[in-house]
Amino acid sequence: MTEPEALIDDHGRPEPPVAGDEAATLLGFLDYQRATFAWKTAGLDAAGLNATVGVSTMTLGGMLKHLSYVETDWFARFLLARPAGEPWDSVDWKADLDWDWHSAADDEPDDLRSLWRGSVETARALTAEALADGGLSRPAATAWSDGRRPTLRWILVHMIEEYARHNGHADLIRESIDGEVGE
């Protein structure tokens, strides 16, 4: 039995498959979280993308750039041992561990969205490549300092968690900007 084409909700989010195999389910939930994040950052100008809530310095623009980096870091650099490319390769991460977060204030909103969309597209292509070369059990090419190598399965679940956590932050920030609410 094949899964019907994904249903798309009013916010452009694809419903994860209810009876898919493991890979389709993981990828479906990750794409749902990605689409939720796209919804929370859509249509905002620079002031909106630089808004904060309470005492936090976290911004939606910073989140766009951070998640662009996370997509690239996990799927290109870590999973397949490929260069991250620019703007990441020229950053002095030792001097500024949060460069991705605060440098976003200097970027144009369309540039931040484009960077994130490009990172997601590349991550999807790299995921497909890794699935074809070992499936969900394929170990990352780069090992942690203790020698362990997480599998593609672990990386996908981690990315779902990363988006879910930041989507909660995005909910609060977006609501404070224009009252936009929703899961």
What is the topological layout?
Layout: H1 22-41, H2 46-49, H3 60-80, H4 99-102, H5 109-132, H6 152-178
Helix pairs in contact: 1-6, 3-5, 3-6
Q: Can you give me a brief rundown of this structure?
A:
It is built from six helices and no strands. By secondary structure, it is an all-alpha fold. It has one domain (22-178): Four Helix Bundle (Hemerythrin (Met), subunit A), CATH 1.20.120.450.
List keywords for this structure.
183 residues; Four Helix Bundle (Hemerythrin (Met), subunit A); mainly alpha
Description of the molecule:
The protein has one domain (22-178): Four Helix Bundle (Hemerythrin (Met), subunit A) (Up-down Bundle), CATH 1.20.120. The protein has helices at residues 22-41, 46-49, 60-80, 99-102, 109-132, 152-178. It is built from 6 helices and no strands. With 183 residues, it is mainly alpha-helical. The longest helix has 27 residues, at 152-178.
SS strand fraction: under 5%
The level 1 CATH classification is: Mainly Alpha
Mean pLDDT: 93
Please name the fourth-level CATH homologous superfamily: dinb family like domain
Taking the alpha carbons of the first and last residues, their distance comes to 30 Å
Question: Which runs of at least 5 residues are low in confidence (pLDDT < 50)?
Answer: none
The radius of gyration is 17 Å
Number of helices: 6
The major beta sheet can be summarized as: none
Helix content: 40-55%
Instruction: Tell me the count of domains.
Output: 1
Overall form: globular
Write the CATH architecture name.
Up-down Bundle
Q: Count every beta strand, where a strand is a DSSP E run of 2 or more residues.
A: 0
From N to C, what is the helix and strand string? HHHHHH
For this structure, the CATH topology is Four Helix Bundle (Hemerythrin (Met), subunit A)
